[in-house]
Amino acid sequence: xxxxxxxxxxxxxxxxxxxxxxxxxxxxxxxxxxxxxxxxxxxxxxxxxxxxxxxxxxxxxxxxxxxxxxxxxxxxxxxxxxxxxxxxxxxxxxxxxxxxxxxxxxxxxxxxxxxxxxxxxxxxxxxxxxxxxxxxxxxxxxxxxxxxxxxxxxxxxxxxxxxxxx
Length: 166
Description:
Largest sheet: 3 strands, antiparallel
CATH superfamily: Winged helix-like DNA-binding domain superfamily/Winged helix DNA-binding domain
CATH architecture: Orthogonal Bundle
Oligomer: single chain
Radius of gyration: 19 Å
Order of helices and strands: HHEHHEEHH
Number of strands: 3
Strand order of the largest sheet: 1-3-2
């Protein structure tokens, strides 16, 4: 931080550009997910995690780590998705004290229908906006920020997130 505590003009420009890009991109991607597949971005995030999990099943705690959501938000969202038939909860075969979240045939069909269109939009609006070198540098920069954010702190907000592999 500089002497004044404020961001320099270049730091401010970079930060505001990132926030603007993040907001615009996610807003557009979310709108297309909803319009084209009837899925919200949180639905898509959960369905991707389940579709990539062994046998299409995962513990809710693993989904919480994957999404970064608190337990209450995750539970309510899983309940809404369960009512729509996208997933179900079953007793875990490994530990009956816990429930597994299981991708249903309806959920698998939804993610398989939405994913190709979503990937095409990500390619068009994100990947194709950069040269391969810029894309690689952007990925490296994002990794550096994520590593910094996930480093636990000693202050009053001692949050350190576990890596999700994403």
